[in-house]
Amino acid sequence: LSGINLSSLGGTCESKQDFLRLLAQAAAGQLCSDTGDGFDGHTGITGIDSLDVSRCSLGPKGLETLLGFLPSCLPNLKTLSLVRNAITSTGGRAIGRFLQGNSQLEELNLGLNDINAGGGDPPAAAIISAALRCKPSSLGTLMLEKCALGPRGASLLAAGLLENETVHTLELAGNMIGPVGAKALFDALEQNATLTNLGLRMNRIGGCPTAEDIASLAAALKRGHLTKLDLSYNDLRCRGCVLLSGALNDPNCALQELLLEKNDISREGVVAISNSNRTVQRLVLKGNNVGRGRGACEAIGSMLARNKSLQFLDLSSCGVDNEGGAAIGDGLSKNSTLECLLLGKNSLGRGSNMGIFLGLAENTCLAEMDVTANSIGEVASWDDAVTRVLSSSFLSRIHFANNSLSSTRMIDAIVSNAHIRIADLSDNKFESIAVDTQLALAKRLGVDLEVDLSLNSLSSPPLGKLATHRNLLNYVTLLENERCSVKRIRLMVCGFGGVGKSTFCRAMTAKSTPNFQETLESVHTWDTSKIVEWVNRLGAPWTNDAVDLVISEHVTGQNLPELIQLGPAGRSVPSSTLTNMCRSKYKSIDAQAFSTAVFALLEKGYLSTVGAVKVDGQIELHDKRVSMVDFAGQIEFMVSHQLLLSSMHTICMIIQPAPSFGRPDSSHSGSWDYWARFLASLGDRRVGSLLLAVSHLDKLDGISMATSRRLMGDAFEEAKLANPSILASPIELDYHNLVQTALTVRNALKGAFEAVAANWWVPRSYDTLSTIVQDEARRCSECHELPIVSRQRFITVVDEYCLAHP
Questions:
Q1: pTM of model > 0.90
Q2: How confident is the model at residue 41 (pLDDT cuts 50, 70, 90)?
Q3: Read out DSSP for 210-250?
Q4: What pLDDT shows up at residue 415?
């Protein structure tokens, strides 16, 4: 019942039935009887042998009520957890009295209760100590983590342990018992023959322990009863370890688990522990300054080489460097018992000595290894060594996260090694996994292999940084069933306003616009049909009436200015001519909106893009197709651009006019560099997926082509520094020689297509999904709605499609 508020327990329960009813109500939804009729106060609850009422806000009064009913209501209770209930010293004394009269309870957890709060005599620890001396008793596990015992409370408990014959596990972490309380406990252990597991984490035992402080512990260890000892976070330092090592070397010592995390132990202490260990199977030295070089690590290596008991070794965050790792590797090559080695957050990879992996290659017993955050991938020469180990080792669980690894041969090795069951490769630099490897993953993921590739910038499979085991499994399973290579990719055409993006798009789809050269003409030369074409592009609710107006009034580029006039602050307003026409014949037209659009057209002088426009027509590349999106260069569209341009599965082209190079006063100066940086800020892109192009070659104003190309070359190098996705040389867009320009663009797009689509296959379902999205986009357009679809609407249209196409 952990976390359920039972604060009312102390005031509402007057009878056994009341108590059982309250527990039944609390248990509703978490427990159910076999008959399905819930708890009636008589069945279901009385047979329970384990009760967890942690974090239930019992308080001392609620606890006393609970303890009063337990013997009669839950006679079979073996385990009781009361963690964090603010029971104070009053509750602590109640617990002690309860234990004195109970011979059934086997495990009690009082963690995170300050049993000194409120004071009073006798201390709660004294009553609990007296309970430890009572017989008969079945209490085997007593958990008192962070109960504010202090030195006095520990000494009182120690007195109870002198006569106790049942408690085998005592957890006293975080009680600040100090050396005085620790010595009292260690003295008691010399006579106590049943306690085997003692937890003293975070108790300020050390600092500068004396021989007398440790002597009693050493004597207790020599008795041969204690098998697990947690002394983590006690500032034992080297002196404490040296004194402790004598007991570890005693033939009667039976200690199997020794936890010494964060004790400010350096070389001398590590050497002492390593040289004396004979029986310890689980050794934790995490967070100690083992030190650089071979020193302490050679002692650890020697221990691994000769020791026949050690199965688990934790050296995480110990400052082990490249040479230290090699020394440990020497020991690994000769070891035959170690099953788990944790070396996370060290510096193994910062050097050329690959001894740690050479030793691992000869080891046949190690099952789990953690080398997280060791800079292993920063030196390219490590790739081969790591790959060889992953291919042939007997490891079943590997943790290689945050190592700057990038060679996908490691993933191939993992897939091909049947021993490996869990592989954590998260937070590395993997970008693209071969399709064959993805298909091989599909056969093992979910069966006998779990791989985490999250926080890698993965373009293939196209999961980005979300390639968790679950997402990876879902994708490769779908890929295996519906695999097909990528046949179409989108080209995002970028640049500031007026650089010729729309012109480029029309040029590259010239088959669908055969009069392309005419589209380069100024708006002042347009006839009525061209004005109609432009009005249709507005996509406004009143577009049809506006088309009728243009045709009926014979509007051309020459008389277009007659529809507007300048109002206050230079803002365009409808002319009297346009106003009168809208009031009389074309009443649906928003005259102000229409005049604003006309003004923008006249200002620019040619067709212009607003926002991001999907271009009609495609660029054919043999069996592949490239569709285009024309992005407006106005700054107000940057937010929408960010949403659309952040995909790594697109090609981007940045266009800058030739006359702007070397002209800081030009509004287009630095376009390549600016847009390259903007795209880089949106996330990772595949190398080769970003193209640069030069427009307006016919407007160089006397600058020689040689000078212009030199300036372009300088700008090209700057842009490459800003965005490593740029690879190909700039494309010169000369529309007077349209055939040659189109050929040049197609060749550049082929290279970019391969860069983006390499090792990228998609399930056929994605094509179906694309069809659904396009249908919904057309519906939005026809209804003059923004092409933004809510999650619920998207689910609805997918469901509708599936019903129509079973």
A1: no
A2: very low
A3: -HHHHHHHHHHHHHT---EEE-TTS--HHHHHHHHHHHHTS
A4: 96
